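Batch manifest, entry 17 of 40.
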Amino acid sequence: LDHAISGNQIVVSRPWDGSGAQTVLASGGKSAFQEVALGPANGLSAVRRGTEVADILLAPTESLSALRPFITSAAHKVSPRVSPRGRLLAYSSNASGQNEIYLQQIPGPGPVVPVSVGGGQEPMWGVDESTLYYRGPTHLMAATIIERPALAVTRRDSLFNDTKYSRYLQHAAYDVFPNGREFLMTRGAAADSRIYVIVNWVQMVGKQGGTGASR
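Output type: structure tokens
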């Protein structure tokens, strides 16, 4: 979670149910943390820093202030995503002249492996390191990843047309359910759209059998 306080930024963690106090994981200047992609415990996390030409840095998940450069090319880089087991980093870059998805091994060194073809943004990992989802020009895509004998993309599947859902270049505007068969997405606001705010939803889950509806 990224907060701006008196021109500076801090990254904090807090139990989702509010049962404990927040812990400050890192702090820095105004552009210190554009994005934070947390990796596994005792592994490495990724931080995007900068605006026009953003760099991606790595740091121990438990000590985000101990940053070291990882991807520092002149191209613009956004949406870093650390794989569930912390071995791979996916990100979007305009190095080819348009935004595409790339892979690199953590902690490196290693080759840069292109994932998307014809445009890609908003990478998101499945529950393991074998599937990487991303937004193509008109469809949500699923790339199959292998690490042996070398890091590679073995296939790309077009899942469904997602042009009616919101997109955001800087970071993913959707999420993947653990079963890999459902996705949480936002639809662009229309002039007559309404927003519903639900409070005390944690208590409501038990009363409604763990189900809910959304608009």
